[in-house]
């Protein structure tokens, strides 16, 4: 028992841990600002890394992202666009922190002087050249300086391509390019590297022929200026297939440098993460990758969201790592053995990353497939044997079925080219010559009462499914007989359909059904008659006994005083009224059964009808009850028999008076505009009717109170009358609260 409990506890513990961790997660609003256009290839992955890091830190981040598209603007328009982006992003949603990525977005965010940037904490990342003077104005900002490590990338190039390789980059004369030149000179001035940082004014011979020193690596920058033939020619020559022993090092990404890796004949490295790993043929480099960048930014953001001040978190240089793209290795024909051990290879296939496990998996799969093949072959042979046995059994069943069909009026048929083909035995049984029927020919042999139904089946015969239809047919001119069509339609693989089935003569079955139905009706009539006579005998005898008894007392007892005589006369009158009502109900029921209930229709204003009934019943409603009249503002007319409708409403009022001791009785109507009908209702605050009884009270002889006087025919007659008036009766009732009987009738529109 103890071991069982421990097992259950071990199973449910992780579940509760997950629930508690989910409940402890906090929701935060995060705005992300990117430098480039939304379609930039690396952004979907980077955004996913950021979301993953927030979730790893227990934060459900509500993230909104804006894209500066910095390549499309000069400085002033760019600052205005950044201001608009911040306005739009914070219009109905205020971020708790801002993450901004890369130099251009960071510069424009701080430079545009938007109030939100002064108010909300900011974490920047991927910034190669921070504007330190501008950052002094923002104590609410911190982040990561992605300083390129040029020397480590040069060393990686020499390890990959030999010490004789010449590394080069492509620079122009923009602000960012000047910053990169200064960074190159700063990092390489004390290193064993001969370098030449070219610019537009550098002589050609100096740019192309700088000294080579033993044991020194070589690095140069190529200056490109559109419209200068010489420099353009140098640029094209350097990238051409004739330039060997050279390696391009990406240090920026703009309209000039984008896709250089794709067109460069020599291998390409990168010191920045932009476009790396996304099919621009950049082999790799020493850089801050997107996962590192996301981890650093989110870690700082979470610290700030948990209460730390950005000013207490110093701006740090981003971590870097050696990374190589497997796909570019394959394109350049670089083997895995040439890659230094300190490098992490991305996009590497599982088979290369885990060769032993891959080989084992392949062996297991081969063995499994071989075993599966053997097993399938065994199943095939077994299935073949089963099919042979099944075919033999099918032949036996076919013979048995043929014998059974031959001894009955059951015939097979099929549909071919929209013609019904019956088996020969069918024609033989009808004394007819074998032929086929078109649909119209077959329909002509059926009773006209079935034509609409059969035409419906014919329209949908092309749809898959099973159908059973019973129709009267006269195939041989000897009179209609009942036949049952059973068929199934199958949709064929190449289109089209196939229909076939059975035709059964069910006349004998129908004859037996008719005999049984007649017997049932006779039994019901006999039972109903017996029940009716028993009920009426009891109900009539009760008031009649009272009338006779009190009449005898009045006639024989001379000592009765005036008060007693009046009391006995009142009882005689009351029971006489009851007897008269019973007789009238019986007569009404007789008219219903014989179909002689007459109706005289006329237009009637509903408000006038309500007024008339209300006036008549004012004196009849018990004094302790409030009698309320409710009239709709809409004046509507109905085409009814006023006497019959008054009879129905009077019955409702009498029942309400009988079963209501305190409260009120309402008589009124309301216009139902959506149905164009009028609802005439009688509502009371009586004892109500239980849900189980509500469906039975309209049945003949049913009474709520078995000890109450009456035959229980009133509501049954009311329902027949309302149906004759093309209306319906609705009932709402709740025990202890009251009832509402409603007659819904169509309105007459002139």
Overall tally of structural domains: 6
CATH architecture of the largest domain: 3-Layer(aba) Sandwich
Estimate the global geometry from the Cα principal axes. Answer: elongated
The number of helical segments is 23
| Low-pLDDT residue intervals, each spanning 5 or more residues | 1-11, 15-23, 706-712
Question: What are the defining features of this structure?
Answer:
alpha/beta; Rossmann fold; six-stranded parallel β-sheet; six-stranded antiparallel β-sheet; 27 strands; elongated; disordered N terminus
What does this structure look like?
By secondary structure, the protein is α/β, with parallel strands linked by helices. The chain folds into 6 domains: 26-148 and 273-320, Rossmann fold (3-Layer(aba) Sandwich), CATH 3.40.50.2300; 150-271; 354-407; 408-505, Beta-Lactamase (2-Layer Sandwich); 534-593, Orthogonal Bundle (Helix Hairpins); 598-746, 2-Layer Sandwich (Heat Shock Protein 90). Helices cover 45% and strands 22% of the residues. It has a 6-stranded parallel β-sheet, sandwiched between helices. Helix 9 (204-208) links the parallel strand 7 and strand 8 (217-223).
In short:
With 750 residues, the protein is an alpha/beta fold.
How would the blueprint of this fold be written?
Layout: H1 2-23, E1 26-34, H2 43-56, E2 59-67, H3 75-89, E3 97-101, H4 103-111, H5 115-119, E4 122-127, H6 132-135, E5 141-145, H7 150-161, E6 166-171, H8 175-188, E7 193-197, H9 204-208, E8 217-223, H10 229-239, E9 246-250, H11 260-263, E10 268-270, E11 284-287, H12 290-305, E12 316-317, E13 321-325, H13 326-332, E14 344-346, H14 350-353, H15 355-406, E15 410-416, E16 419-422, H16 424-429, E17 436-438, H17 439-444, H18 451-459, E18 465-473, E19 481-491, E20 497-505, H19 507-556, H20 562-594, E21 602-605, H21 606-617, E22 626-630, E23 637-640, H22 642-659, E24 664-672, E25 677-684, H23 714-724, E26 728-734, E27 738-746
Parallel strand pairs: 1-2, 1-3, 3-4, 4-5, 5-12, 6-8, 6-9, 7-8, 9-10, 13-14, 22-24
Antiparallel strand pairs: 11-13, 15-16, 15-20, 16-17, 18-19, 19-20, 21-23, 24-25, 25-27, 26-27
Helix pairs in contact: 2-12, 3-4, 19-20, 22-23
């Amino acid at each position: 028992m103890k071991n069982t409990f421990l097992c259950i506890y071990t199973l449910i513990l992780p579940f509760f841990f997950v629930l508690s961790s989910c409940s402890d997660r906090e929701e935060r609003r995060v705005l992300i600002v990117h430098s480039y256009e939304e379609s930039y290839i690396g952004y979907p992955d980077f955004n996913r890394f950021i979301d993953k890091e927030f979730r790893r830190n227990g934060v459900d981040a509500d993230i909104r992202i804006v894209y500066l598209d910095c390549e499309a603007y000069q400085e002033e328009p760019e600052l205005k666009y950044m201001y608009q982006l911040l306005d739009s992003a914070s219009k109905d949603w205020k971020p708790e922190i801002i993450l901004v990525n890369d130099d251009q977005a960071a510069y424009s965010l701080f430079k545009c002087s938007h109030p939100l940037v002064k108010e909300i904490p900011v974490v920047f990342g991927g910034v190669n050249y921070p504007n330190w003077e501008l950052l002094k104005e923002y104590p609410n900002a911190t982040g990561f300086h992605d300083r390129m490590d040029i020397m480590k990338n040069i060393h990686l190039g020499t390890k990959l391509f030999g010490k004789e390789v010449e590394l080069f980059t492509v620079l122009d004369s923009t602000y960012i390019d000047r910053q990169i030149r200064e960074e190159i000179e700063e990092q390489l001035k004390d290193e064993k590297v001969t370098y030449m940082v070219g610019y537009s004014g550098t002589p050609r011979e100096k740019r192309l022929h700088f000294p080579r020193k033993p044991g020194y690596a070589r690095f140069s920058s190529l200056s490109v200026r559109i419209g200068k033939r010489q420099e353009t020619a140098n640029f094209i020559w350097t990238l051409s297939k004739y330039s060997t022993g050279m390696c391009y090092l990406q240090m920026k990404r703009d309209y000039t440098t984008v896709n250089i890796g794709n067109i460069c004949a020599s291998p390409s490295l990168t010191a920045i993460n932009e476009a790396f790993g996304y099919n621009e043929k950049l082999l790799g480099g020493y850089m801050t990758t997107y996962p590192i960048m996301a981890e650093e930014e989110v870690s700082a953001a979470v610290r700030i969201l948990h209460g730390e001040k950005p000013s207490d978190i110093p701006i740090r240089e981003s971590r870097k790592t050696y990374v190589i793209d497997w796909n570019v290795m394959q394109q350049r024909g670089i083997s895995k053995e040439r890659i230094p051990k300190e490098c992490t290879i991305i996009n590497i296939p599982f088979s290369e990353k885990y060769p032993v496990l891959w080989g084992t998996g392949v062996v297991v799969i081969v063995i499994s497939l071989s075993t599966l093949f053997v097993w399938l072959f065994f199943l095939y042979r077994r299935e073949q044997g089963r099919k042979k046995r099944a075919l033999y059994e099918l032949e036996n069943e076919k013979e048995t079925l043929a014998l059974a069909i031959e001894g009955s009026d059951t015939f097979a048929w099929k549909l071919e080219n929209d013609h019904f083909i019956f088996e020969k035995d069918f024609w033989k049984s009808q004394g007819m010559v074998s032929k086929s029927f078109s649909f119209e020919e077959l329909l002509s042999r059926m009773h006209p009462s079935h034509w609409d139904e059969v035409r419906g089946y014919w329209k949908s015969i092309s749809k898959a499914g099973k159908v059973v239809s019973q129709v009267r047919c006269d195939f041989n001119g000897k009179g209609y007989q009942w036949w049952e069509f059973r068929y199934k339609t199958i949709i064929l693989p190449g289109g089209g359909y196939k229909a076939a089935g059975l035709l059964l003569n069910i006349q004998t079955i129908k004859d037996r059904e008719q005999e049984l139905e007649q017997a049932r009706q006779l039994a019901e009539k006999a039972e109903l008659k017996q029940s009716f006579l028993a009920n009426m005998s009891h109900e009539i005898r009760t008031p009649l006994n009272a009338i006779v008894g009190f009449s005898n007392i009045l006639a024989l007892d001379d000592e009765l005083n005036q008060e007693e005589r009046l009391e006995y006369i009142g009882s005689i009158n009351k029971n006489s009224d009851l007897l008269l009502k019973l007789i009238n109900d019986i007569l009404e029921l007789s008219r219903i059964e014989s179909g002689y209930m007459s109706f005289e229709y006329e237009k009637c204003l509903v408000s006038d009808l309500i007024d008339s009934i209300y006036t008549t019943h004012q004196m009849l409603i018990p004094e302790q009850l409030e009698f309320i009249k409710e009239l709709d503002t809409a004046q509507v007319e109905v085409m009814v028999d006023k006497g019959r409708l008054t009879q129905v409403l009077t019955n409702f009022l009498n029942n309400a008076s009988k079963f209501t001791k305190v409260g009120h009785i309402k008589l009124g109507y309301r216009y139902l505009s959506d149905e164009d009908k009028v609802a005439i209702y009688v509502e009371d605050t009586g004892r109500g009717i239980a849900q189980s009884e509500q469906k039975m009270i309209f049945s003949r002889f049913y009474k709520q109170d078995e000890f109450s006087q009456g035959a229980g025919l009133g509501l049954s007659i009311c329902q027949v009358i309302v149906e004759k008036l093309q209306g319906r009766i609705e009932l709402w009732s709740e025990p202890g609260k009251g009832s509402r009987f409603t007659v819904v009738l169509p309105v007459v529109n002139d």
